[in-house]
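Pair request: fold both.
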Amino acid sequence: VTILLFIVGLKLDLHLVRHLGPVALATGLGQLGFTIVFGFMIGLLLGLDITASAYIAVALTFSSTIIIVKLLSDKREIDSLHGRIAMGFLIVQDIAVVIAMMALGSSSAATDMPAATLLLTIVLKLVAAVVLILLAMKYLLPRLMQLIARSQELLLVFALAWGTLLAAGGELLGFSKEVGAFLAGFSMASTAFREAITARLSSLRDFLLLFFFIDLGAKFELGSLGDALLPAIIFSLFVLIGNPLIVMVIMGYMGYRKRTAFMAGLTVAQISEFSIIFVAMGISLGHVSEQVLSLVTLVGLVTIALSTYMILYSGQLYLLLEPWLGMFERRRPYREQQHENELAKNLAADLIVFGMGRYGKRLARDLAAHDIRVLGVDFDPEIIKHCQQQNLTVFFGDATDPALLESLPLSQVSHVISTLSDNSQHLMLFHNLKQHGYNGRFMATAHQPDNLLQLHHAGIDHVFVPLHDAADHAAHVIKQILGNKS
């Protein structure tokens, strides 16, 4: 768990929170408040005591950053608008986790202390710890790690030693070693070496986390499963439905489209491994019984399993529920339209390229060099910035979002090219274009040769196979070279 929190600290990108500050804070804090209040009320209605209801309510607020990052990365949606918003409010949740565990750790060290004094002590300790960490981040770690990073093995050893040092310091300050490890990771998050450290620690984290869940499973009381079954179903439905709903309500009120709000809302439809850790800490302090841990563990199993498939099939799920999601969108979703309308004023294009990765960007650049007006579309702000530096016209948006097409000059263009990552995205874009009355030619890339037949059968005009095309061109050049030599 200490290693897990250390890696969470390494992932704490405060720049992302600043970039998406209003929506990240509003959705993060709004979802925390909603889940705690209504989760507590549900616990009381189910006959649980006040302490158990409070622990369960807090445990239900935490979503699994690790699972969400993995799923969004696999779907290549981590840099989409809803992916970035989700990462923003997951970071807010991670901070809340640390504060909650800090409060528990401090209360265990001072059980007879008045509540006001305890709260003041926690705040003072937190301020002192943050000040020390900020000083280390500014003056110590950048220079020290620059020297150490010359050896990858030494960098890993130093990261573990730094994490262990601050974990021990956290325990001495009356917090917990988990909180100290989180602060250690956070202090390294602003360095250029955090990804290298994270990559090397991930296998160790997964290995140790396996034993943590084995230990929790061994403590799972099957005898109490019958009593916990009904409360677990009710709490699971609350997490699977209630958490996404409150996120959609907040994002809709803030001016985001229903699709963006829906996709972001799905990411909070499960509880986290930290929920189980939080309740386990309560058991160690004697606040709650092991039956509460069994209940929360069962809710975790149900919500993590179901939400995984909800996120994997989010596109299909959105199309199914779209007719009923209009209530979560303003008549004018100004937050997204404002940026799109500014760009749309000066848009003029002969051809649109969806997906401005390496292939799409090279294609757009070569076509533009032959005086063809190309408009690129991508959802990654970093790619857009890089394309703009090369004087390419790029529009920010998610290609699979039907509402995006309303802002594009489809009536002007005769050709649309999709260089997106998989067939489902090509086909969804193709379908949406037809729905918007586009009658021009549609071309796509098949990154796997097996996908070629499916795209042809769907009616797509032309399919490029980048690897085959590149090999054919290389063979042609080689034949010319050999012919010249002979």
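--- second member of the pair ---
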Amino acid sequence: GWHVRRASLGTGASDAQLADLVGREMGRRLDRSRPLWELTIVDGLVDGRVAVLSKMHHALVDGVAAVDIGTVLLDPGPEPLELPPPEVEWEPKPYDRSRHLTRLGMTPAFVARKLIRESGRRALTPDPRRAAKELLGATELLTELARTKPNAPMTTLNRSIGPNRRYAFHRVELAVLKAAGKAAGGTVNDAILAVVAGMLRRALPELPNTPRPVALVPVSVRAPGEEGGNRISTVLVELPIGTGDPAACIREIHASTQKLKDSATVRAGALLVNASGWAPPLISSSLAWAMSNVRAFNVVVSNVPGPQQPFYIAGSRLLGAYPAVPLNPSTQGLTVGVLSYDGGVHFGLLADRDLEPSLEVVAGALRASVDALLAGG
């Protein structure tokens, strides 16, 4: 009754009105005294459409896990699946740190299992100074990797932000983005980053070409078959905004991302996620503080692959799935969420309410960047 809600936009509401509602909801913090998720059913949209707005705290899931949960709520066909009620009423189990560490130690990881078990043993040590030293060392490793990059340029996107949000969304055909990336010698992911580069070039014309703006791009380090939780590392990608040629932009991005895929940054992030999974809140706050101090990036671009077959809910087809990536730390005024689903690439822009330039300008720049990429110039 608390977590599943309903909102009505009246009759014949537009996508812009839906985006306004999403922005307001994303500006409202989840109740910390309850499980950190909410689901809002939104009716009143034009053509009889209904929206489902899902909010899940990043402490519970990363983007890939959030998509997995979404597919559980949906049906693979128009006929709803018959789900029998559970035999016994569900009750939460108390948190057992030893059980958690045992399971963590048995999980296939990107580092040796012995290292994970040793990390767990150190976490249980009665000496808090030793555990704190281990955490500090891991945090300093990532901080130092960030410092090896030149500071990202100061932009209007990186001023202090307030608590309120605005939201905008846009859909592009996956096939055409794939074709554009392939034609330029890159991938669909390179094409998506080129779209973001073109968006920034149009929305921030005063932005200098050197140093280039930097995007923080989460990278999944999830082991095969692993479900739930947060299993991400990050890379920092410089966006070439000085050229108006989308193909050249894709080629530059492809060259730089190829070097980053097996970089020390990804390996260090995987090490931290896998070996130090016993204290995610402390790690997250430490990294947020460290990264904010060096201004290592200007914008977050989170690209999550989703299912390419249609899904349904109560017999109605899911037409689109648009992500909203929270703003963090306090000087990040814009995030770009990207989710592919059923032949489409869905962009979701979440911004501080008082972002300069306005989110309306940024969303227009995104659409113009997509048009230019598809037109080849």
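Observation on the second member. DSSP finds eleven helices and eleven strands in the chain.
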